[in-house]
Amino acid sequence: MRLVQITDAHLYADKQARSRAGVPWVHLQRVLEAVSAERPDFVVFSGDVSQDETAASYALAIEAMSQLTCPWAWLAGNHDQPTLMQDERPLIDEVDLSAWRLLLLHTPVEGEPYGELGPEALATLATQLEADDRPTVIVMHHPPVDVGAAWMDAIGLQDREAFWQVVSAFPQVKVILFGHAHQAYAQRHAAGEHAVAVYGCPAISDQFMPGAAHFMVDEASRPGYRIVELMDQQWETWIERVSV
């Protein structure tokens, strides 16, 4: 089972509109061309689909994603409008990946750059995990860990301790994927008596400088995506970069 993660397109309604380091629409096209060549079984788009939060930007995203020949799902980031996304394509919270399952968590807080799950979503997550012990991948927009850039760590998942308390009770949680940080990341995080692999993904749009104390664009880096090969209780993962 080949899962591909893409994230942080920051699209505008205008296909020609520029971000700090390029044209998001062009970046999305290049990334999806490369992803299609990977022949994925499923693609997950982990938030910040839009920058200008317009219905037209989500319609453009749907237009671009239509080139994929596999199923896909998206979730909202802090720059997104979930209602507008829902109007274009349903926001779902679970995907059956045969031997594995994929859980998509909603972390945005309206009007804020940081994320939060909240008690109700955490209780729902626990119920989902209690009901099925298949190996599980969790996807969310906001990082549930520090990524080492002080400004980004301040706007990550605010109730991460409560999140990890839930996860620590369920050793079937093997992998967590996040967006928001606009950079590659890979670490194993202790969760009770087991460890969970936590991965960040390069953005489709601008890349952020790893380890920066303040906001900084990494102009030398390129857009990319993450491939996760899911096997029986095991996985392999790596980053691919795309020239634009």
From TrEMBL:
Domain Calcineurin-like phosphoesterase: 1-183
One Pfam assignment: Metallophos
InterPro entries xref list: Calcineurin-like_PHP, CNP_phosphodiesterase-III, Metallo-depent_PP-like
Alphabetically ordered keywords of this record: Hydrolase, Iron, Metal-binding
Record carries keyword Hydrolase: yes
GO molecular function, one term: hydrolase activity
Similarity comment text for this entry: Belongs to the cyclic nucleotide phosphodiesterase class-III family.
Protein name as catalogued: Icc protein
Protein source organism: Vreelandella arcis
